[in-house]
Amino acid sequence: MEWTTQLEAVWATAIGMVLGGLVGLERELKDRPAGFRTHMLVAGAAALLVGIGRLALADDGLFANTSGQLRIDPLRMVEAVIAGVAFIGAGTIFARRGGDTIAGITTAASLLMVAVVGLAAGFHYYVLAAAATLLTLLVLMLLNLCDRLLKRSAKGGG
């Protein structure tokens, strides 16, 4: 296998990491349990797993039997990413002692989202990955602003 093909997987991983880092930066600035580095690594790992899957499919004989039929489903890499992110996301959700408050759900959801962004980058769907990152940032920042404004107006007697 040519090294240039492997560099494409590295490039896709880098794009996934940058896009995941943008979401992670927003989480970091809000002092959430998982921040910049965590989001970068989750998105990068997702993109790299897809890249490995793409390389393996292109590698003659690695996944096909002698009749040329596929022996495994390469989309199982996607399942592995989601299972791994679910484990990490569960670690970011915690209940506060002495109360009914649960924290970290939005961060866990953002980790899932950057994993999917990484998957999109790994499949070389760069426009989709960038658009999903933008939408995620809009949800995290704009809806947070709306939430604060609504709470402020409710306290002000409205």
UniProtKB/TrEMBL annotation:
Compartment(s) of residence: Cell inner membrane; Cell membrane
Keyword Mitochondrion on entry: no
Topology class, membrane: Multi-pass membrane protein
Protein name per Swiss-Prot or TrEMBL: Protein MgtC
Endpoints of the signal sequence: none
Transmembrane segments: 6-25, 37-57, 77-95, 102-120, 126-146
Broad class of where this protein is predominantly found: membrane
All copies of domain MgtC/SapB/SrpB/YhiD N-terminal, residue ranges: 15-146
Record keywords, A-Z: Cell inner membrane, Cell membrane, Membrane, Transmembrane, Transmembrane helix
Organism this protein belongs to: Lysobacter zhanggongensis
Highest taxon listed in the record's lineage: Bacteria
Family assignment from sequence similarity: Belongs to the MgtC/SapB family.
Family annotation (InterPro entries): MgtC/SapB/SrpB/YhiD_fam, MgtC_SapB_SrpB_YhiD_N
